[in-house]
Amino acid sequence: MNKLVKKLMFSIVRRYRHSTVSQWAIFALDVLLFVIAFVIVELFRYGGIEDITLRAVLVKFIITLTVTMMAYLFTGSFRGIIRHAGMSDIYKILIASVAPLLLLFAVNLVNNQFSPVIIPTRYLPSYRETAMLYLLLAVLMISLRLLLQRIYNDYFRRRRPVENVVIYGAGAAGIIAYNALHQDLRAEYHIVAFIDDDMSKVNQQLNGVPVMRVRSVLEPKFIKQKSVSQLIIAIPTIRLMHKQAITNRALDLGLIVKAVPHVSLWLNGSFSANQIQDIKIEDLLERESIKLDNVNIVREVVDKVILVTGAAGSIGSEICRQLLQYQPRKVVMLDQAESPMYDLQFELRNTYLHDLDRMAFVIANVKDRARMEEVFEEYHPQLVYHAAAYKHVPFMEENPYEAVYINVFGTRNLADLSIRYGVQKFVMISTDKAVNPTNVMGATKRMAEIYIQSRSTEQTHFVTTRFGNVLGSNGSVIPLFKKQLAAGGPLTVTHRDIIRYFMTIPEACNLVLEAGAMGEGGDIFVFDMGKPVRIYDMARKMIQLSGMHGIEIKEIGLRPGEKLYEELLATKENTIPTYHPKIMRAQVRRYPLDAIDREYNELWEILETMDDMKIVAKMKSIVPEFLSNNSVYCQLDKPDATA
Q1: pTM of the entire structure?
Q2: CB atoms within 10 A of CB 496
């Protein structure tokens, strides 16, 4: 029999756990509670059922019930979903109880002051009865909702293990996070403690939860003793460096770390538990945002025709987004990749609905001289931002012909056409791999730098920007690690000690625009990118952030042409400051114009042979500091090597 009852209960729970009770059923329950409260008060008032005058009680019941039902309908106290009931629902219940109480008080007062009598006194509850009735009714209505909530939580809600959570921040956002977690239907949360840096809050309590110092909570003994599994950072305005320090400390303790987003990102201005965000590896690598002088960019860009090559790539597309904010006359977006260009066109046309005439989308390859001339002839750009390039080191090590054709001679095509068509400024995106290059890709970017630097004139200024790896860009290490995590590992690193510099895509592109405004011709700007990041540590942090255990990090060896340590400046270069402390102007060796033309023409002739060894040998002749690493081209660096 017990098994049959349990089976029936389980069937009912499974079928109705996601259903909500009809508002009219709640209305009927509230009316029933009124009847119960009325009977209790009347029994208390008369002391026994034999003393009750049934006619008087019946009329009194009808009057008070009518007034109460009107209050229910007016306040909508029965319309809330009980499983989500909160303070607003309690407020409505109190109004639904106080309103009829005050009305009946007023009727009693008028009835006692004026003659003839409006309603016989025996048909009205006394002041004391009225107060008792509606106080008891409010208690019963609130208790009913709490009881139904408890029943739902205990029997109808899908049961999950309890998550012990610590909330960092005992301010308004911390309280909001606390309430959101308690109302979350997806999991059970137990808030163990609040953490706050404000010593005036420490040792106090919020909703019965202690407020403690960081060092008292984020330490192994407390975490183990309280079985804490998550830390939620509930200070949306927390400084980035402080957030990173707290996150790293929590990750080292094995905690999952999440954060409450800024209030501007809350959906419709309200907050729920599903808006609490996972901390991403990007959050741990970013620096405090670097502020650049947008006034210079506005002056440079407004009402100009601008050509952006490589527009569908990570950097190129962000440059286009930022340029469109500065009211250019037209942004000509050029790329050879059809599908990414379609995606960019779809995005920008839906984002900038009132600027459609400011946009042009062109499918073309920068190595096609005739096609590039057609583009310049049609649009006559005043500014060029050159982001088109092959950038993947291993691929370019295997395909030097394509690397040279696109990165060197594609750049030469654009530079020559920029001079011919009177472009005011040409800004090229380079890389830290161009400094003392150890691979074909880095060497081609250095050769492109050399060429445009030699071409700078009073009419056309050529500017280069160098920076390191960009967070989340196509083909970067973070998307690779995410795919490997999704597949269950292992995460692969080429060397345990390999380090890289990182910056965000918006920051990189803002730098490019600022450099364009700052450059006076022949400049190479480098960026203070802060401290380098060890890729192995990044992989370890990503595993911790994922909450997955037992994921292996596997060393696979340096790839051909890959460095352990990237450099931002060559050893023979020095820098001079600019008006921005994070942007420096590199002092680099300049090459004679006639020598460059001769060398590049010879390279063009060798390129036609498609002989990789000859091509790379000539590159090394043009860029003497190009010394291959872990590559078949290392043999060309031997003293007796010949082209």
Answers
A1: 0.69
A2: 13
